[in-house]
Predict the 3D structure of the following.
Amino acid sequence: MTRAGSVPGSAVDAGAPPLARVVLDRAAQHRTDPEWLAAAWRRGRVLVVDAAAGGRTLVVADRDPPALRLVDPSDAPDAPPMFLGVQPDGAPVFAVDAALPTVPGARAAGIREVGHLLGDRDAALLITALALANWHVRHGFSAATGDPTTPDEGGWSRVDAHGSRVWPRTDPAMIVLVHDGAVGPAGRCLLANNATWPVSPGGRRFSCLAGYVEPGESAEATVVREVAEEVGVAVTGITYVGSQPWPFPGSLMLGFLARADPAQPLRLEPAEIAQARWFSRREVADAIAGGAVDVGDGDRLLLPPPLSIARFLLDRWLGLTG
């Protein structure tokens, strides 16, 4: 925790996953102060996100790399404000979940499109706003009483007429890059194509194995269980690498590396995994560089986008980061 009024330093090094950067002072001590929040809203800036449209927001149209386009409170759509924090210059920042307004010099974009290109401040604002907006969409009624709930505490809780209050929760999930432990271009990693993923024109996406942590289970135990369930492989040497929030709907992805023997037969869970295979470092590097690595049926290997922690794990394994 940080002391009241302090701006956190970046405790996360530059080699952290793209959305794990610590730059936003959330100023949580103000969330229960309605008078402060009201005054802050009048002098603050507002990020508009549209949860119903997949989390799209406004970015400056002609800027490369992109930057978020915040609006004045007077120009923001009429929706419950969510207090995101205070910028280093002291300006409060809020978010609202609403259809995007037309703003001169701005265009609509999604986090998958621009998230990895945003600066540290913008990435932190967008990921927090989307996570909060998605939580509010799912918690319109109290699980304890069944009554409608309304936003409170600057958007960081919801409360019903009886005072029953809920706060945002994050679901832990693990994601693991399984590799053979070998060094050099011939070293291999195990990637899978999820059964629910559509086939893109001329390509098939392969990624790391992942799954939610179950009650009573550690993240490391989840790695062992999920890999065994999805591809029938036993792993050892489990190493934690880093974490990254993901707001769809509200997860914390815990990234791991683990070793396995490629001689083990693959036994796929067909409801989840359509295809899995071992790829060499040379093949993965070629695919990242835009090369055509064949995965069958004329399809080429597609890898996770730069924003994802899956891509971060692949880069770490390739030796491109960390």
About this structure: Confidence is low (pLDDT under 50) at residues 1-12. The chain is about 20% helix and 30% strand. Residues 171-318 form a domain with the Nucleoside Triphosphate Pyrophosphohydrolase fold (CATH 3.90.79.10).
